Amino acid sequence: PQPTTLGPSGQATQAPRSPEGQAQYNVLSGQFETGSKEFGEATAAYNRLVPLAKDKTNTSDRALLQAFSKLTDPGQVVGASFSKETAGVGNLREQLSSEYNRLLTDKNGTLDDGLRQKFVATAKRIHALQIDQHLQVRDDLRAKAKAQGLPSDEVAPNRLTTYGSGGKVLTQAKLQEILAGAQAQGKTRGEVLLDLADKGYHVRGGPQ
After folding, report:
1. Most exposed residue of 16, 50, 57, 76, measured as fewest CB within 10 angstroms of its CB?
2. Rg of the chain's alpha carbons, rounded to an integer?
3. How many alpha carbons lie under 13 Å from residue 52 in its C-beta half-sphere?
4. Can you say whether residue 90 is alpha, beta or left, with left for phi > 0 and alpha for psi between -120 and 50 degrees?
5. Does the pTM of the predicted model rise above 0.85?
6. Distance between CA atoms of 113 and 102, rounded to whole angstroms?
7. How many CB atoms lie within 10 A of CB 6?
């Protein structure tokens, strides 16, 4: 950690960062911001999609298909390393186009319940992978920042604060307890977070 100095108000403040330290801070934080942009868009798409699936109207189903398209866009964070886990997404995207056109033509039409749930389940699986990849990048950058005496949580701040609603708040300690048990059963952090969100839980501050 950097040494602290006593500021004008009598409070401890961080000592001025060296030019080299500031340059490295800018590099690492820039990498995080660039990598987080698409993840933020994916998060927004997923958070739109989930409640839309409950409405089951023509308008909500069309909006759901738009959100799924955004979530699974090739420009999003799921890479080739996830090709096995994301098998079948291409077929769903092809089906999406025909279903969307059908709903545009038939204003009273809706998605078949089974197909709607397939879109939701696939979106959840994809987004869990996106979360896991984002967390890995975040953790790697935090480790690099810490090794250079830089504030890791400033270099790579928490972007996972929007999952879950319903007022059931989990502390970081409780989340770690749940994660330990779930990961012992083969679940990833992304899967655990989305399962908790489905149950209305919210992690205070997002997972550290």
Report:
1. 16
2. 21
3. 23
4. alpha
5. no
6. 15
7. 9
